[in-house]
Amino acid sequence: MGRLNVLENKVRKILVSYPETRNDDNVLIYQYLKEYHDIDLISVKDLFLNGRKLGIPSFESITRCRRKIQEHSPYLRCTEKIDKIRYTHTLKIRDYLEGKDEITGNNIGCEIARKLR
Fold first, then answer.
1. Residues sharing a CB contact under 8 Å with residue 82, sequence separation 6 or more, in sequence order
2. Which of the ends of the chain has fewer CB neighbours closer than 10 A, N or C?
3. What is the span of the domain harbouring residue 110?
4. The pTM is what?
């Protein structure tokens, strides 16, 4: 767990220092790489193929830390507009995973199963 705590502290520092990183994971990842891994000297190929060897955490780990920090630190949360967009996206993904039709809300999986019987 030590590495996750270190990563979380680094992400927290970035969220505090660069408010724009609270709203956009791509900006957060870029700023993290710029601050801690001198991104300007790493090729895209090395970033993706040798990132682990270079000590670069996965992008998912960085964004997971952001979500955890924002959940527990209201002053580091994203803007209300971005929060609404993320919430709407979450609902759409949940509906998709449950097999619901985006337009009608019907469960597509059940409809298809009934038609196949």
1. 22, 23, 24
2. C
3. 79-117
4. 0.74
Q: CB count, 10 Å around CB of 47?
A: 15
Residue type, 20: E
The string of pLDDT tens digits covering residues 27-81 is 999 999 999 998 888 889 989 999 999 899 999 999 999 999 999 998 999 888 9
Q: Are residues 58 and 1 in the same domain?
A: yes
Token reading at 101 = 């039709």
